[in-house]
Design a protein that fits this description.
The structure holds two protein chains of two kinds.
Chain A: H1 2-20, H2 30-34, H3 53-67, H4 72-83, H5 98-135, H6 140-154
Helix pairs in contact in A: 1-5
Chain B: H1 2-28, H2 32-61, H3 68-73, H4 80-85, H5 91-112, H6 121-142, H7 166-181, H8 183-195, H9 201-205, H10 207-231, H11 242-267, H12 271-294, H13 309-329, H14 346-378, H15 386-406, H16 417-440, H17 446-477, H18 481-491, H19 493-517, E1 520-526, E2 531-534, E3 537-548, E4 552-563, E5 566-571, E6 574-578, E7 586-588, E8 590-593, E9 597-606, E10 612-620, H20 623-640, H21 647-670
Antiparallel strand pairs in B: 1-10, 2-3, 3-4, 4-5, 4-6, 6-7, 8-9, 9-10
The chains are: A mainly alpha, B alpha+beta.
Chain lengths: 155, 671
């Protein structure tokens, strides 16, 4: 059973990582690009969500670039050159900023390992006590007490 | 008169300090006179704060713009309802409101524990008064709600038009109720640590507080989502804004706490963990308030830099240090009463649930704070927005959804392999078959497939749990289906209330998946009489209009919507300009909601050719999110409702238990 749990644990963590890796987009559309950029009006909203005049101008500019055949990366690069990384709605997956993406999963995997070790230790201790307890024969008064406790639980 | 309001707040500060001291001193020195006066001081602080809230409401309703707060958040044309809600619209008012609710909860704790928990209540009250003292100090020294202006303005600045919405009216108070109610289990946890009375009493005493706090936090977040959906006009409901995240974080850790306390109640295990979880939840409520009010992180709906951030930071650091010291020094007394019997048990699955909830909370906190961390390390400013949280959070939340179905299938203490296989076989087959059907009908996105398949899995397990209980009751007690259902729910309200809450969570997952995964949106430009087809709906511009009232000017478009050639509905999206905030026009979304999908239209104005510009969104299954919230409300009421266990019911249950035992014995003999 431990083996099954261990394998499943590894699979779950691997699945979390895999699901996090998204396939590359083949076609560009306005929604996708505007979801990757922030509005520059100072509202702290993703460009897609912002409805201000600045956002309208940016969206029109992006639509024009898409119509001219620019790829998503090209459009994002040109905006980064102008405004810096702060224009991107999510940190680029490189350098120190890569830690933003990796850290949550590393933390979960690390905590999962710790919890697994802890559970293993607890269950080993529990098994020892259970074996000892099972070897002792129950007295009549213990049985009665057990019966009473079970009745309470059932209520 | 308003100086008098400020003087009352000063008095509240002194009385709160006395209540804090009286409860500690009275308990330590066994002085009942101090304990009694300490309790009376708690009650007195509540009545005094009620007076200050009444005074602020009086100032708002009489438009006394001498008071700076009244001038900033209301005006003469604001209707009475929104004038009352202005009480919590700004920082000063919301802090007053917060302190008042906290004092009310403290008075309620005294009332609930008149004849019980005498060991824990003094320190619990002292903790609550410690928190109240912090808020009183804030109002007295940093942000006086009754601050007056040197002159009397003709009119006030009015309430932000975006806040004039029923969702926004309910959002802050429900969130505050959740935040503040979590102070009660936290206070009892601190009392348990200080008195070294570390059994499960503090948990059972505050069980209903915890459920209520969790529920109000969930409700507050849902109201916020609904407000964003109908008011902001971008077709979505959750933007992963730092302030939204701040209210989501304690909900995640609170959910973990709600589950893990069950292990302590049943098995006497995870004592340190539960103490840590309630502490983290409380500290996250303070962190959330700090983020909202410090101006540290820019957000679309924070209060900005209000000068109280430093106070919150000091309180946060002090509370963290004190609780950490308290837990660390009590570790020897916090040992578990039992060991784990098997790796495969309900206890383990709850731990895995806790791990994922805490993992999700960490991911959200990490993403929220990362811009500051990155700037400190690299010197460059970056943004962490919705794409990050969606990408990182989705797999974690899907795993949590799956676990919602798995946990009830695993037995407490020790599940055998046979039992495990028996419980899992049908739910797994049914959900996999459903997944296959989803694939056949054309769903290809892995996330959407997983979300729907896992939802079916959870629904099946919830149904199975209810059916198993009902069937057993029908067999052993010869009851009808509905009587059996009523009986099992009455006997174990928390368990079945919890399953209903899980059902609500599944509905919310389905709604989010549908509205995010299958949404259609199109920008169209129409002249009068022209029409555009989006999905299977035809939108025809019937005309445009302008409405004026003392508060605002509304520019609207009237749309006839046709489906299958027949008039389906009429929609009137508007763009409004309020006189008090002319630089901030806002949209009034036209919404036609059905369980299948929402028609959501935003009037963006007119283009250069004079045509109406309309953003048309068709959002499938969005209504399920709000209906899921209602189901959660129902489940919470089931869990909290004080059902009368009458003598007749008890006798019936005793008879049922005896019958069941007899049946079991017969079965054992025949076997």
């Amino acid at each position: 059973m431990n083996k099954i749990l261990r394998t499943n644990g590894v699979l779950i963590v691997a699945l979390l990582f895999l699901l996090n890796a998204q396939p590359a987009e083949a076609t560009e559309n306005l929604t996708d690009v505007t979801n990757s950029l922030m509005c520059t009006c100072g509202c702290s909203m993703v460009l897609y969500s912002c409805k201000c005049g600045t956002a309208d101008n940016m969206k029109a500019d992006i639509q024009q670039r898409i119509d001219n055949g620019q790829s998503k990366d090209q459009i994002l690069d040109s905006y980064v050159q102008r405004y810096g990384d702060v224009i991107l709605a999510a940190p680029p997956k490189e350098g120190f900023n890569l830690s933003a993406w990796v850290m949550p999963f590393v933390a979960i995997a690390g905590a999962a390992f710790l919890v697994y070790m802890l559970l293993k230790r607890w269950s080993a201790q529990g098994a020892v006590h259970e074996t000892r307890w099972a070897q002792e024969e129950l007295k009549e008064e213990d049985l009665q007490e057990l019966e009473q406790e079970l009745s309470k639980l059932e209520e | 008169m308003y100086q008098f309001g400020y003087n009352i707040l000063q008095l509240v500060m002194v009385i709160t300090a006395f209540a804090l001291f009286g409860n500690i001193w009275g308990f330590q020195k066994r002085r009942s006179d101090f304990l009694v006066s300490g309790r009376r001081a708690v009650q007195l602080s509540f009545w005094l704060l009620t007076g200050t809230v009444a005074l602020m409401l009086y100032a708002l309703l009489t438009h006394d713009f001498h008071v700076e707060y009244v001038a900033s958040y209301s005006n003469r044309s604001l209707n009475t309802f929104y004038t009352i809600t202005a009480l919590w619209a700004g920082q000063k008012g919301s802090l007053l409101f917060w302190t008042w609710i906290l004092s009310g909860f403290s008075a309620l704790v005294i009332r609930q524990n008149r004849n019980k928990n005498q060991q824990l209540v003094p320190y619990a009250l002292a903790t609550l008064m410690g928190i109240q003292l912090f808020f009183a100090v804030l109002m007295v020294f940093a942000t006086n709600p009754f601050e007056t202006l040197a002159f009397m303005p003709q009119d006030g600045q009015g309430l932000n038009p975006l806040l004039q919405n029923s969702g926004m009216v309910m959002h802050p108070p429900t969130l505050y109720l959740g935040y503040i109610a979590f102070s009660v289990p936290f206070a009892f946890a601190i009392a348990a640590l200080l008195t070294r009375k570390l059994d499960s009493q503090w948990i059972t005493t505050t069980r209903k507080w915890t459920i209520a706090a969790w529920f109000f936090l969930a409700l507050g977040n849902l109201f916020g989502m609904k407000w964003a959906y109908v008011e902001l006009g971008w077709g979505g409901f959750w933007a992963w804004d730092p302030v939204e995240n701040a209210s989501f974080l304690p909900w995640l850790t609170g959910t973990a706490f709600l589950h893990s306390v069950m292990i302590q109640e049943r098995r006497g295990m995870l004592k340190i963990w539960n103490m840590s979880l309630i502490t983290i939840t409380f500290l996250l409520t303070i962190l959330g308030t700090f983020i909202t009010r410090s101006g540290l992180i820019s957000s679309v709906h924070s209060f900005g830099n209000t000068g109280v951030g430093i106070y919150f930071l000091i309180f946060l650091i002090t509370s963290t240090a004190f609780t950490a010291w308290l837990i660390i020094t009590r570790i020897p007394d916090l040992k578990s009463d039992h060991e784990l019997n098997s790796l495969l048990s309900r206890e383990s699955s709850f731990l895995l649930n806790n791990l994922l909830l805490l993992g999700a909370a960490f991911a959200v906190l990490w993403g929220t704070l990362f811009p500051m961390i990155s700037e400190a390390v690299t010197g460059d400013k970056i943004t962490v927005g919705a794409p990050f949280f969606n990408q990182v959070g989705t797999p974690i939340f899907l795993a949590l959804l799956l676990l919602t179905g798995i946990c009830p299938l695993i037995a407490w203490r020790k599940a055998s392999g046979k039992n495990f296989r028996h419980n899992f076989l049908w739910p797994m087959l049914v959900s996999l078959a459903s997944g296959g059907i989803f694939w056949i009908i054309g769903i290809r996105s892995v996330y959407i497939l997983m979300s729907f398949t896992f939802s079916i899995f959870v629904l099946y397990t919830i149904g199975m749990e209810f059916w198993k209980g009902i069937r057993a009751k029908m067999r052993t007690a010869q009851r009808s289906f509905f009587t059996a259902l009523r009986n099992i729910v009455a006997i174990n309200q928390r368990r079945y209330g919890g399953y209903i809450i899980h059902l609500g969570i599944v509905m919310i997952f389905v709604g989010i998946t549908g509205s995010v995964g299958f949404k259609t949106e199109q920008k169209v430009m129409l002249d009068k009489g022209e029409q555009a087809t989006v999905k299977n709906y035809t939108f025809q511009l019937a005309g445009r209009y302008t409405n004026q009232d003392p508060e605002k000017v509304s520019y609207g478009a009237k749309l006839n919507v046709y489906k299958d050639g027949k008039l389906y509905t009429t929609m009137t999206p508007e763009k409004r300009i309020h006189r008090t905030s002319q630089d901030q026009p806002h949209t009034e979304v036209a919404l036609h909601q059905t369980p299948k999908e929402d028609l959501y239209v935003v009037y963006a104005g007119t283009n250069d050719n004079g045509k109406a510009v309309l953003d048309i969104h068709i959002n499938p299954l969005t209504a399920w999110i709000w209906n899921g919230g209602l189901v959660m409300l129902f489940g919470t009421l089931i869990a909290l409702y004080p059902m009368k266990k009458t003598r007749r019911n008890r006798k019936r249950n005793e008879q049922d238990t005896q019958n069941k035992r007899r049946t079991d014995r017969r079965a054992a003999v025949s076997a």
